[in-house]
Prior knowledge:
The chain is of the alpha+beta class and 731 residues long. The protein has 21 helices and 22 strands.
Amino acid sequence: MSTENELFSAVDALLEQVAQDDLPVPAERKRLREAAGLSQAQIATALDARREAVGNWETGRTEPRPPKRAAYARLLEGLAQRFPAADAPAAAPAPVVPEAFTGPAREPEPVPAPAAVPSSRPAASSPNKPAASSRRPGAKKAVAKKTTAAAAAVVDPRFENGPLAVIDCEDGQVSAYCVGGLVLDVPAKSIPALVDWTLAEARLGQARLHRNGRDADPILVLTASALERYGLPAALSEEERHASRLPDSHKVVKQIAKAGLQLTQRGLGPWARVFREPEGSKRRCVQLCILPWNALDSREWDKKDDPQLPTMHPADLARYLGLYAARVMTPRGSTATTGLELMTALRPPTRAEKDPATGEFKRAFNDDALTARYDVVECEVPDEHPVLEGKFARHHMRTPAEMLMEEPYDWCRPLTDEECANQFLVAVDINMSFAAAANSLTVGLNGPTHLTGNPKFDASLPGSWLVDLSHVDLSRVRINGRTVDGDRLPSPFTPKGDRPEGPAWYATPTVAYAVELGFDVAPIEAYVRTQTGRYLDSWYKRLRDAYVETMADMGVTTDLGGSEFLEAMARRKQVDPTMALLETAIKATAKGGIGKLRQRSRGQVPYYEEYPALKRETWRPDIRAAVLANQRVGLHRKLMKTAAAADLYPTSIGTDAIVYPSPGPSPLDILPLTDEGKPAPGTFRLGVSPGMVKHQGTQTVLWAESQFEERGGVFNISNLIKTDQSAGEGE
């Protein structure tokens, strides 16, 4: 549980966006939250509480307890100063904390933040231009009159039209579709004019997610008709696709340069940044998301087998991306890139600190963030890394004693005769398993320290350990007084489930699990990090809340259990197809963000040459390894508990999909329950929250046998068993 100081820091972050212990009446608590434009989920995240608890505090059903009570009182006190009741005098505005200092050499890359509540009024127009209006059939028209609830919500006036706009052209008229159904007339006749209009009049963007971060730049999503209107090609050529940009000789690129605007090193590609030099600490940058150039990859943002985005109405596209921005963050490119940037947005590396001698602000580093590039460890890096040049013969396959191989499961085994007597194979899938594995995980924040001479294992030190775990025999482990059949379970120490054959490199969670099972470990050497922290906690909570809220919008709530949950999951995509896309995007953000921590070369440079990803402070393969190790051993822990509770063993595992033989077609036919009808402690549990499981699909044992016969042997069928072919995507 978070300490009071940690909770106060989270509350201060909220107060930057928008202590006494006496709380106002419940109705006033709700009024203050709505006046600040904050959601119950945001307050719950800051206070390390459940969203339902915040709702109960606002209705008076329950009261917060220490230490949350003091932090909640501090939040309400700060909001009351900013948003006094109608009969109270207005409080003086709070001082603005300068944005984090990042240095002049850094390319203008923003740290986005949660979306403000969408406003239903159009942006204030300049004296010489008419007010924005809506002209589209089917689009909601912006009106000045507001409901009582909307009037209570106060948003940052800089971003009152939301984080982004979809730019579309019809009959020669360009329109900007914003969140909340607002449609703005766009007078710009060129890309440079469009950028300047966005910076001066559109009032797009998002407030920073952390008080030491930066506000998000506005995003303009360009449709095919907008590309035609502004002189951009409808598609990139083969050469341009390979370069991911238009050539500098293109007329629009020249227009941008002639207007005094600049492009980042990425150039004008599917995701482009166009900016002017900052005015003091104020950024002047607009991000272009060019839809026809595959900026929103269908494998992440859409239905890959039946893409919806190319034909989606601009208002619906604005709703979809606006919801993603509000619940996760303003998109920054692929979902993987956005997932990585979310980590930095929630844990900014720097802050502005006032120099007591001069009174001026200077850059300071945050202790809970990744702030620098450190020396790498040979066993932790991929094969193409420059540090490995000359270390191995050409085409050498590194062994577990030479390379840290912490990866998800890809394991299978033949069915026993007894298991073949079952009619079905049921696959269950863990919700957002990588995000769940990141929760409460201690990772290293500084560079490696090399330990030699058979160091003693210390589970509190994240890093990599060379140790022999071949002596671990699962059949000797007692779970609740019972032993299990180790031959029908994968080893927890290798992705293929094979028992180790000698010394190998493992991340700290893997070695700690061997100790948990009751076995002695004797490391030979290690590379550990001495500055540690739960760097990914706030990242996990942000994605958890986004996922749970999105699932609730489709009727899958946390209070459902058993058959009700399975039925709600089966019909959810028909409830709201847009929310179904959002579900996939959130899951892909979680998975891709972890993968980006050890991004490999994509052929940009020859082997052993430094590629762009290596220049990031967030290129940390040791953190990725820790998350994947924690995911795998966490899954194995539940396999052991399930086997001990119900004599139930998996036949195959693919990442986070587990296949069990079953007498019936439903997970309810296999998942063990107590005598009271509750899930057996420590086993797999049906539910929507990350770490719980859902039904992926069911097949018959005869189907599996036919697959094995066709392939000439047993292979991993876990990801072929899908009732819904999109099940498990993005996990």
